[in-house]
Amino acid sequence: MRALVRRRAHDAELTDEIRYHLERDVERRIARGESSAEAWSSARRQFGNVTVVAEEARAAARVEAIEQLIQDTRYAARGFRRAPRFALTVILTIGLGLGLVMSAFTIFDAYVLRLLNVRDPRSLFEMQMHDKWGRERNASWNEYQALTRANPAFSESFASIWIIARRDGEPVMLQAVTGGFFRMLGVSPALGRLLEPGDASAPGSGPVLVLSHRAWLAKFGGDSSVVGKTLRLRDRSYEVVGVAREGFDGLGETPPDVWVPISMAAALDDRAAASGADDPMLKIVGRLVPGMTAASAARALSAWATAATADRPEPERAATVTLDPRATPLYMSPVTMMQVSPLFMAFALVLFIACANVANMMLARGMARQRELGIRLALGAARGRLVRQLMTEALLLAVPAAVVGFGLSRLTLDVAVKLMFATVPDAFSSYLRVLPLGPDIRLFAFLVACAVLAAVAFGLAPALQTTRTNVVAATRGEFSAAIKPTRLRNALVIGQVTVCALLLITGAVLLRGAQRLQSLDLGFRSAGVVQVYPPQALRAQVIERLRSDPTIRALEASSHGPLDGRFPQAVVTGAANEAPTASNARVSPGYFDVLGIPLRRGRTFSADEARSRERVAVVSEATARQLWPDSNPIGEVVTLSSPYAGQARQRTVRVIGVVGDAVAGFYGERHDHPTVYEPGSVDRELATLVVATSSNGPSSATAIRRRLAPVDPGGSVEIHTLEESAAVQLYPFRAAHWVASALGAIALLLTITGIYGVMAYVVALREKEIGIRLALGATRRGIVGLVVRQSVRLAMVGVAAGTVLALGASRFIASHLTMIPAFDAVALVVGIAVVLVAALAAAYGPSRRAANVDAVESLRA
Amino acid sequence: MGDAKTDLLQGTLDLIVLRLLRGGPANGWDITQSIQVVSKGALEINYGSVYPALRRLEAQGFVKAEWGTSDNNRRARYYELTAAGRKQLATEREAWERFSAALGLILDAG
Asked: What domain range is A59 assigned to?
């Protein structure tokens, strides 16, 4: 780009030059008596063809630049051939850094930057309605119909429901869509046909499905005769009418396995079955009318939504509509991107350390070539030309480094995905769907940009430093005089140590947080408990099978699983103190017993109270402490209401018991958050069964699955142990800490080799000085001390800076994750200690060599 | 007047320009006039061919260019020899002498 601009400037200059020449010539001819016209034509003739001249002049500069580049490259290559170890070390070091950065960017690109493979993705938006408290609200079938008839903003749209059904004990991700889905997105079939409006003509009609390309390969082995085969889902058969083309993965970050017509939603999902044409079930995605902006469309749709939902009960009415772009699998607003950027910073920092390492190596090499550079400068070579040549060398190394980096990133991602599937608890690994992380143009462009930046980072400063010769001194043969690279060298080492300390300390903070979470007292027993989620149709049979199983010690139920996500909240009024909100769930009487939550006061529900949903409640200790600090809560009466529904669903309950504190659905919840339990019965509609078994571990889940097989041949009941739920909640956190630790370890390794290299170089450089000192009576231990002290001094500065940065990073993390304290002294101390020890270890080798310098030999050299 | 003449002169034209610039900075027009004057009109070239030569020498770092004011108060681009250019001039001059000596030997032999 800059070359283009420069070229245009040069062209203009050339035109001016030539014009000046012609004007002078013409002036002289006119002075000699020619007419104006004659003067111009003869001047032009003498000049020669102006266009040809201009082109030749342009070409001359261009050709020369290319020739110089070829010359530089050949010279650089020759130099590296003579020092292959140096070149290899640089290539591997930078390749490592580039590989890490590329891995992170590939993930980011696949989810956030890559445009979806559909028609005109930039015009697609998901329409999300919000109620007056900002909560998300779906649309009902009737509302969607009204929208399609008179849409103020979309030229076309489709509605969908996301369903997870189970088949043979594995989840199947389904998207139930309206008829125009595939046509609107411009997707073509790989086999057979895709869904059409006719398939969804009436509820319950059209038991057909379309397979995604991946599901077709994974579940049917790419069998080309799959069209016409049937798939059994939840007691119904669905005919496979086609396979979608390769590369179409739906519109979100989880690729569906199967698409069915929306008319089949009720057959596949209990909630859909229980809802009617007025119940909000649908997500709507539409294509903006060309020329309309998203902002004005959102405004128009908000007005429409307010009017359309006016018939709903007051709390459920829509107040606003937001439009989320659906051009990429995962939409990140610029604000979100900024919040996420520190994660990528960590990878970039490792690349920085690698560049600092190499910069020091280039500096050392430049010092060794001082004689050659000095001579060339003395002979009149322009400094800019020399710097350009040194930069060509850096770029020549950056190219194979980029290749290495690319290969490394593919390998890393491959291993990472496999590791993820291997370490996620078994019950949940089949839920994982990863978008393809394949290479594309953007990735290569990013790689090239990073490689060039890296080359500048590790090549420019050393190039500038080593060409700063005092020419007079050089002509006199004194080449080392004026150059003082010590400051740059020290700065690079300090920079490396700073980043290393930052990464290690932050990694330690995350590690301790993960450990703390893992050893957190849940307040209930997770071993030996299995959760069973039967679909409505099979519920009674499942309960009967489980009750008759001798290995099952108890069967209870709750409205929300103990670790299935945060419990819904209720507002509690009427107690001695006010509590903001309390977690609220319905549980069967024996629930506390099964989970080992101790009863502190009073009693649990009776079977009658459970059956009749008596207005009683059991509270947790924290609730009792906060609401009735000075009195016995048994017998007290409070009112529970939903924070959103207001008067509706308000109920007054009497406290009959107090149980121990327990985590209410989510690890991150504060332990002393109040919880109120209300009675429910296993035989009624409490969603989750909680089962105590006499055995432990995931085999207990398989045993139950086998037990239920007679009533559930299709494997549609979800079963997993409570321990697996716990592990899955902790998983992202542990994964984050593994990555941080890995980065920290790589950073440490690079920093150690960096310090080692620098110290070794300095010792070699100052051999003579060391020899003199020894000759003058210094002890060998004193020499060792000298070298080690220098290393430690640099390390201390780096550690200090790194600690400050790490404190900032910890504060940032703490503000996002509740379990991490902003100041973790242990992590800090350990991190600092590791870095200092590393610096000492790195200086050890060179200091030994310094101690073994032969004074006489070094003075003679 | 034609391709033959310009081809012959490309390498030697660079040498001529370098030599003429030894006397001090000059613009393209000045150089073409110097060529006329110093060679006493014997050398006839297309004036325009000086400009590619100047650009080439500039790219090689033997001359550097700056915009300045001419003697008739107009803007013109002035070229000046660099240290590298001076060295190059000496080298090329030497090479030319050796070449013409060798050529002379061959032509005069037998």
From this structure: 2-82
